[in-house]
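Deliverable D2.4 — example input (structure tokens):
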């Protein structure tokens, strides 16, 4: 860009204090974003994995490490959780407002989301993708347990994962007892 008959490249060689200040602000913003995103997207090698299955009009959760299944989502506080999400019929959307996370579950595709709950609380998982007549009722309780021990105690009382996990297009293999 030519300014006043000279080449003006403030991003390379600032020609005034204002250009230098703007360049530093942009650089600071880029560096801050890079560091923040690296921290958010870092995957803990000791994270807990939860397989999330969505199906008109319910949620179903398998805990592979514990070998159990449930219709309620339970996770321990202060431990990173990887959600591997699968839709068994149509597009659904996994949304827990307090976690500020929303991910689509698409048939035939495994979607992943990572979260580290920092507060023990009771929340609600909501489907936010119009998925049919019963869409408004597609919710599931979410419980962030106070400790890993509380989570382990809850998990020990759950039924085992059925011998064959559901595949896209199939129904949930067994009804989880209430």
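Example output (designed residues):
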């Amino acid at each position: 860009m030519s300014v006043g008959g000279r080449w003006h490249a403030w991003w390379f060689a600032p020609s005034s204090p204002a250009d230098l200040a703007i360049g530093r602000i942009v650089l600071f913003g880029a560096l801050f974003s890079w560091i923040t995103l690296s921290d958010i997207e870092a995957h803990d090698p000791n994270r807990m994995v939860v397989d999330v299955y969505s199906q008109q009009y319910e949620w179903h959760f398998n805990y592979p490490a514990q070998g159990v299944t449930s219709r309620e989502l339970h996770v321990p506080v202060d431990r990173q959780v990887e959600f591997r999400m699968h839709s068994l019929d149509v597009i659904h959307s996994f949304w827990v407002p307090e976690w500020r996370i929303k991910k689509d579950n698409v048939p035939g595709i495994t979607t992943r989301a990572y979260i580290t709950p920092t507060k023990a609380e009771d929340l609600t998982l909501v489907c936010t993708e119009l998925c049919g007549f019963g869409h408004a009722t597609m919710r599931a309780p979410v419980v962030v347990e106070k400790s890993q021990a509380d989570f382990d105690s809850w998990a020990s009382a759950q039924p085992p994962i059925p011998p064959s996990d559901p595949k896209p297009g199939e129904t949930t293999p067994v009804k989880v007892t209430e």
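The chain has two domains: 2-41, 48-156.
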